[in-house]
Write a structure and sequence with these properties.
heterodimer; A: about 400 residues; alpha+beta; 11-stranded mixed β-sheet; 3-stranded antiparallel β-sheet; about 15% helix; B: about 375 residues; alpha/beta; 7-stranded mixed β-sheet; 11 helices; membrane (chain B)
Chain lengths: ~400, ~375
């Protein structure tokens, strides 16, 4: 899934989430299909029950952007729940960090007892758990870890379709790292296989959040498109995917109008973080989407209703002509509108002083005309009506 | 080809020679796999060119066929995603930003603080901690041809790692000798692009090593061209011209090492590149560039046809029956406040009192008995 949310201050956050489910009993694994073998072996042979690894570059500005979709500190964060069959958790932790450093090309091998902790109350397992003995939990953060293309490459290779089809074609390093925030994560956990929850499946969830702020075009317009953000468009869904969707947050404030092209497959409403939001949904697996054009480029334009607005301003020239400002604007009801204008004072020549300069200068008052009644009147009335109609 | 058919008579002498000749052709270069160890030893943004050097060689070597699993790439600093890089996720080797050598599928095995003299020597000699992942190991054998490329800042007899330590030419020579004794290489090509680079190969004494350097002792190696948009020099001269030379090479090229020795004469490089071939058994004339920069791909083409039976039914073994849980499993509660605040704090492990405390108590008891005499001991015990 891809979720596109415009941010309050003009940027846009794109969150990708890829979920791969593997129906295998823990401990008895030999057949990997879509689940990557490198990670599957961690579960099968290394005694890992849950794994959460996040690599983040940049800093989520909560004050400007709101709550982040997925929390992650800058650098590398790794926390793991081991299975209770593991005898020496510290040794398994050290070996695991070495293995992960090879898989993800990150210096996770620097994780050791000096930067690992065993939280006692937080970081409860996010998957199925039979009791929570915190001795099986380890947590470490490497704040100095850099995230770059060599970390993205193996992450993309874990996906069933790689970066060849589906939503992952948008993940090009040159655009993703030219952003204000980039966070990619891998989560493995056991989940219920179905509603009855009597069998265990393993879920691999790969998420990537990126915030683009630097494409607002002329006049700070908040228009964007997939091509502008990622310099790619989508040509097909991943054939191995059972579900492939794009959600565009089209909730608006005030009088903004939002227009998304092409027209979405459906609309979806949800309450997210306490607010009601509407989403335009593009289902990549529905045949109607790629009917008209071979590539999908979702575009969003924001418009404001056209107010009649006219401003004419002619600046003054010393000793020649005064300022002229004419404005035709619509004022909202029950409000106060202030119009301010800045000016500079010039020095007078000594011959220009009047006899009583202690008075100061007089300003030409603005002659405004609030004219609702005149506009509403019909032309005939102007000639014949009594005085009160012209007030 | 030329193999004896099961029911045919033994091949005669004529055919035997044919077989031998073909076998010789097959094993001409006597190596069966290729490895590359590419090291950039410099940290800091103004040493951008060293990372660009290493990545350019990485690109060429990949293009000529060596896969990532056989390349150990060590970059001492991150230039691509450096905050000072005006084009993130790129490293350019030509000005005007023509060629991005960082690309989209780079795999860096040792990065940042991991690039140390110790790790480099461990990679070479194979004396690596057991939990090191495969991608960080040089798993070469006695039929491997290894290319070792190093770049950074160097001096007469040493190469600087990350501005904090050095490797000397003696250490390097000993490491190669260890590799030889452990049969970790068949032939080795060592290329170094630093100031006074020739000093690094002066001390080699193991057989089958060929070495190239960008400058002689007493000379500096110079950089090629700065890019005003990025603000630093993008590449060093010697590697730049080596790369131009390698661009002409493709996996089936027959170009030999003598041509590589001619690359970058003094007129272009300002320094005098050097090479050393006395330890190498074969004549450089007979050594192909692809023996080190490319990968061995022995392909045997057969004229036999194998027909697949289209009527084979798929055989699926039923997966073993899983035991289902008796009651439904559930997820853990994320914030069980009551349970958390009533947790007993973990008992601290008991440690025997430290030496200072013991000494203090011994002093107090001694003073007590000195003052009051031994006869009071029975009151205590």
């Amino acid at each position: 899934e891809l979720l596109l949310s415009p941010l309050p201050a003009g940027g846009i956050a794109a969150t990708f989430q890829f979920r791969t489910r593997w129906d295998a009993a823990p401990g008895r694994v030999s057949h990997y299909r879509l689940f990557p073998k490198a990670l599957g072996q961690l579960v099968a042979a290394r005694g890992v029950r849950e794994l959460h690894l996040a690599l983040t570059q940049g800093f989520w500005r909560t004050r400007i952007w709101g709550q982040p979709p997925l929390q992650a500190p800058a650098g590398a964060e790794l926390w793991v729940w081991f299975q209770d069959t593991v005898a020496d958790v510290d040794k398994a932790w050290k070996e695991l960090s070495n293995i992960l450093s090879g898989i993800f090309c990150a210096s996770l091998n620097f994780i050791d007892s000096t930067n690992s902790v065993t939280p006692t109350a937080s970081f409860k397992p996010l998957g199925l758990a039979n009791g929570t003995d915190h001795r099986l939990l380890r947590y470490a953060v490497l704040p100095r870890e850099v995230v770059c293309t060599e970390n993205l490459t193996p992450w993309k290779k874990l996906l069933p379709c790689g970066s060849k089809a589906g939503l992952a074609v948008l993940l090009k390093a040159e655009r993703l790292f030219h952003s204000s925030y980039h966070s990619q994560a891998v989560h493995i956990r056991p989940i219920c296989r179905d509603a009855s929850c009597q069998a265990v499946s393993w879920e691999l969830r790969q998420t990537l959040t990126v915030v683009f702020e630097n494409f607002s075009g002329t006049q700070g317009k908040k228009d964007w498109s997939l091509f502008k953000m990622f310099s790619r468009t989508i040509t097909e869904a991943c054939p191995l995917a059972s579900q492939s969707k794009i959600y565009v947050d089209t909730s608006v404030k005030d009088k903004e109008l939002v227009e998304v092209t092409p027209s979405p497959t459906s609309l979806h409403e949800a309450i997210v973080q306490g607010e009601k939001r509407t989403y335009a949904v593009y289902d990549l697996l529905s045949p109607s989407l790629f009917n008209t054009s071979r590539s999908l480029n979702v575009q969003l334009k924001m418009t404001w209703p056209q107010d009649s607005c006219y401003i004419h301003y002619q600046p003054a020239q010393d000793r020649r002509r005064p300022h002229l400002l004419e404005m035709l604007i619509q004022l909202p009801a029950n409000s106060v509108t202030k119009i301010t204008i800045q000016f500079e004072r010039a020095l007078l020549k000594w011959t220009e002083y009047p006899p009583d300069p202690n008075h100061g200068f007089y300003f030409l008052p603005p002659s405004g005309a609030l004219v609702p009644s005149v506009i509403a009147m019909k032309e005939l009335d102007m000639e014949q009506s009594p005085l009160f109609t012209s007030l | 080809p030329g193999a004896a058919k099961p029911n045919a008579p033994w091949p005669g002498p004529q055919e035997a020679f044919l077989v031998l000749d073909q076998a010789e052709q097959f094993f001409k270069s006597s190596h069966t796999n290729n490895w590359a160890v590419l090291v950039c030893t410099s940290r800091f943004w103004f040493n951008y060119r060293h990372v660009a050097n290493t990545l350019s060689v990485y690109r060429s070597v990949k293009r000529l066929g060596i896969p990532d699993s056989h390349i150990v790439l060590m970059l001492a600093d991150d230039m691509a995603c450096n905050p000072r890089n005006p084009k993130p996720a790129t490293v350019f080797s030509h000005k005007n930003m023509e060629l991005n050598v960082y690309g989209d599928d780079v795999e860096v095995d040792y990065r940042s603080y991991e690039v140390t003299v110790e790790n480099f020597l461990r990679v070479l000699t194979g004396r690596i901690p057991p939990s090191t992942p495969r991608s960080k190991r040089l798993l070469s054998d006695d039929r491997s041809n290894i290319l070792i490329y190093m770049t950074g800042h160097g001096g007469n007899g040493f190469l600087k790692f990350q501005d904090s330590e050095e490797i000397t030419n003696v250490e390097l020579a000993d490491a190669f000798e260890q590799m030889w004794q452990k049969r970790r290489y068949n032939e080795l090509l060592f290329i170094i692009d630093t100031c006074q680079g020739a000093s690094m190969y002066e001390r080699f004494y193991s057989p089958n090593i060929m070495a190239l350097a960008s400058s002689q002792v007493g000379e500096d190696s110079l950089s090629h061209q700065p890019d005003l948009g990025i603000g630093v020099h993008l590449m060093d001269r010697y590697t730049f011209y080596v790369l131009e030379f390698l661009e002409e090479i493709h996996p089936a090229s027959q170009t030999n090492m003598n041509d590589l020795f001619q690359v970058c004469p003094k007129s272009l490089c300002v320094s005098t590149p050097g090479h050393r071939t006395d330890l190498f058994q074969r004549d450089p004339q007979n050594v192909l560039i692809t023996d080190f920069f490319g990968s061995v791909r022995k392909v045997e083409i057969t004229a036999e046809t194998i027909s697949l039976d289209p009527n084979l039914t798929a055989f699926e073994s039923k997966p073993p029956k899983e035991e289902l849980a008796a009651e439904p499993l559930k997820y853990a509660e994320q914030l069980p406040v009551a349970q958390i605040i009533h947790q007993k704090p973990k008992q601290k492990d008991w440690h025997p009192p430290g030496g200072f405390i013991l000494g203090l108590w011994a002093l107090i008891i001694m003073v007590f008995f000195k003052t009051y005499g031994i006869k009071h001991m029975k009151h205590i015990f």
